[in-house]
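Homework help board

Subject: predicted structure for assignment chain

Our instructor gave us this sequence and asked us to write out the predicted structure in token form, then describe one feature. I got the tokens but I'm not sure how to describe them. Can anyone check?
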Amino acid sequence: MTGSTATIEVDETRLPVDRIPATVGNDGIGISTLLSKTGVVTYDPGFMNTAACQSEITYIDGDAGILRYRGYPIEQLAEKSNYLEVSYLLGKGELPTAEQYEEFETRILRHTHVHEDFRRLIASFPRTAHPMAIISSAVSALPGFYPEVFDAAGEETQELATALLLAKMPTIVAYVLRHVRGQQMPNAEPERGFTADFLRMALHEVRGPEFTPDVVAAMDQLLVLHADHEQNCSTATVRSVGSAHANLFLSVAAGINALSGPLHGGANEAVLAMLEEIRDSHGDVKTFVSKVKDKSSGARLMGFGHRVYKNYDPRAAIVKEAADKVLNSLGMRDELLDIAMSLEKIALSDDYFVSRKLYPNVDFYTGLIYRAMGFPTSIFTPLFAVGRMPGWIAQWREMMHDPSTKIARPRQVYTGPAVRDFVESANR
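My token output:
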């Protein structure tokens, strides 16, 4: 769909281009003919000003602190919905009826078990392996166990692939956690419920088989908050790999690899490390804040600021409330939570941070919740991957159904030598 036209002028060439209207947010400028008509390309490192697709899934307004899935505010979904319902919404475009939800949930729960050979695959990795490496390999291996979904085409095939990924990802993460801890891998018990059974499989030895409703609800809420976030690095990777018609499993595995980078999925680990550093320094928050403001100190304020949000991350307030509920439900008082709240209070009242729009993001309190539940820091990013799975799936499927999709092939501005003649080694 196009709207009015605009004009790009390059040297002596005036190029009319279509304006691509958004329902809300920034319009786009269609420049697909720029190279052929003018002989130049756009230069946009990190694609900060480049839209590679049109999408109906997620809307973000970073300045206003808005996040919506399919038009629904994240605050409403976090309070009133659950992970499987949000997964349906992201994939289908609408909230399910009671009958549709029951059918969807039943199909997902039916697939939470994994093949015995798949367990052995996970167990074959050294216990010292990074969990994200195992998880990426496991997801890549899934189409080997389900060859009927290797082909990317076909609606029914995509529906089955969707169900398999949503169902098996929590089981994979739970098994990986237990493997690196040297614990036996239990069978799934889907009758307990999706999120409750994931917690049981992952943390039985830590917390026992039963979790309080507040803890289960908090875990489910964190999954909802991470379900999608527009065209971030991992999602763009899923779309890029999928544009070659790689199947859903292999495309998602590529997204998992992107998420493993410390600049993307490892932020909540970094927050926890920062809070522990402050605790080990006698909990002196004011001194730490002073060090952060002194650029020569090397101290960094983790969990504040965001690539997109230039206001308070709308997910952060929800996570902060969840942290209190989880700790109270578990009968814990975490010194790190007290430090985090003190740090947030100081930072939000300090002109240095306010002027730079450094507000808490979703990662600031997330690690504290995971820690209280009993998850080690090495599994924080895999938990992020569980949450983001419905978004990756929805984005891949949208891309596959978009007739304007082309195989990803970014251009470059070449800056190497123009032309050189080969010199034999004896004469170099």
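Reply (TA_rk): Your tokens look well-formed. For the description, you could write something like this. The first strand starts at residue 5 and ends at 10. That's the kind of observation they're looking for.
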